[in-house]
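re: ur msg from earlier - yeah i can do the zinc ion complex, just paste it... oh wait u already did. ok heres what im feeding in:
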Amino acid sequence: MDLEAIKRLLRSPRPSDEYLAGVKGFLDFAYMGKKADTKIHCPCVKCVNRFLLKRDDVYGHLVCDGMLLGYTVWGCHGETAAYISANKRKRSKGERKNLNSNMHQLVHDAFGNVDNEPPVNDRDGPNRLEPGPDSETQAFFDLLGGEDVPLWKGCELSKLSFLVLLFNIKSTNKWSNKSLNDLLAVLQQAIPNGKKLPRTFAEAKKIIGKLGLSYERIHVCEQDCQLFWKEKESDDFCSICGKSRWKNTPDKTTLTKKERRKASPKKVLRYFPIKPRLKRLFMHKETAAALRWHDEERTKDGALRHPADSEAWKHIDSKQLRQK
Ligand SMILES: [Zn+2]
Ligand SMILES: [Zn+2]
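and the outut:
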């Protein structure tokens, strides 16, 4: 029985047979490579891993009091990061097989809402207080609505998920841009409605680019004194060291508009804004659940065992979350 199965059993009502089997599975795991009379941390609701007990006592506590809620990664009992990653590696072959359907799922989680209703905040009817999706999110859903039609009647793949898969193959196998161009040219002729596909990698990238997350390019002084940003966005040289922002341009020189359009920057910072990334994470069912775990599923009994129990986290919550 794998750990996930045991953990599922432990979520059954106590003291059912399923729950007892879960407790046994847990103890077998905790005692792997240990002598039978070793004492282990008791993960029951009352001991909260603070006390070392014998196997029989831990069993008794888990049956009578129940397992600590939210103790899902058994860190006190040998389920370390190394253990988890070793197990993942074992599983990865099967996972790879599922890659295609996962990719499909990912695209579909995001699309799911498009077919039915507007994606967010429509539950409370017209008098709702919170606004609907902002323009950027709406544009994303529009894109999904437009591109998420089957490639041809009866085809399981939509144009968009097809392109996502193709891009995935391209990057995992390190195909050149040209090889993808060549493939697209053949596909255009080979499959029904092939003409609907983009003709080149660049065209495909435009469509996929809206799905993915772009970054901002911000020019930087070559000596890293400052960013050419906000009030300094249209400066031509660094206000601190005087070095020119542009290649092949003397320092402390201001360019004309025309010259600026042709100039190329000496140094560029790529900035990946966090907000759109968080939004995208919340659009996916599973990652959204993981992101909400700290509030919805974490045991809140005053004991300190997760960063979310800390004063710092609470401070951020009180500052940011309540300002609605
Ligand atoms: Zn206990
Ligand atoms: Zn500078």
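cool cool. Strands lie at 40-41, 52-53, 216-219, 268-271. ping me if u need the other ligands too
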